[in-house]
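Continuing the series of single-chain predictions for the mutant panel. This is the parent chain; the variants come on the following pages.
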Amino acid sequence: MDASLINTFAAYGGAVGQRVAGASEAAKLGAVAVVVRSMASNNDDIPHTGTLHYEEGVKAIPAVAISTNSADLLSKAVADDASLKLYVETHCKTLPDVLSYNVIGEMYGSGNTDEYIVVGGHLDSWDLGDGSHDDGAGCVQSIEVLRILKGLKYTPQKNIRAVMYMNEENGLRGGLKYAELASFNKEKHIAAIESDRGGFTPKGFTISGSEAARTSLMSWKHLFEPYTIYDFGKEGGGADIGPLKDQGTALIGFLPDSQRYFNYHHTGIDTFDKIDKRELELGAASMAALVYLIDKYGIDGNP
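Parent structure:
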């Protein structure tokens, strides 16, 4: 990952292809295994896992990710001794698919009941940790949006859903099924907000949608700026809400500070003690405020 990039998600995006496709690309060149440097922002001894895709028709070879410190050590050892041999032993296996579920909570609107605003995160997580930042924080914040609005005794005009998607990490099946059923049930999703960048201090929101939707979001920026939430309008939404794009839904991504996210991402240390309560609450409140604005004033030119 390119440490010179302030946006750590851009650094991750620039490197993660080596993990996702590295095994198949290496196998085409005769490799018998691949060792990948973990997708991490810092130097430590924690390996980071994540998705690996084997290309059809290409031999599936063993693939492992090692910590950044171990990668530095291995690189130096190979440079010092070109005849170096590495022993790799893995015990990975793919288990059969089982039935899983999205979990949905809903506030019913007083107006046009076929219109929906969705906030969501995903339930599943990787490996040995409990996925507190990826994406327990997003699930809690989405639930909190509804709790905050109910606590304020706010009656929404549109239906507001908090969706905890299943299987984001391994195929987006929860998000795909949700969009499929939304289309089948003729539900009109005017906006979807996803929190899947950790429970850190809020900075703003990204958006993928029409120019009118982007204009609406930008018109509210001044309301958030007194709370140091200022980064608005960059392109982006979220993985689970992405399948709603075909409906013309405005896709919005909650954008917290990203500097610490890849210290914990997809590791055994992504645990509850890494969550800061105040930061989590600030993020939930910013999402609730945006949901209120969309419900009251509309987005995409539709009140």
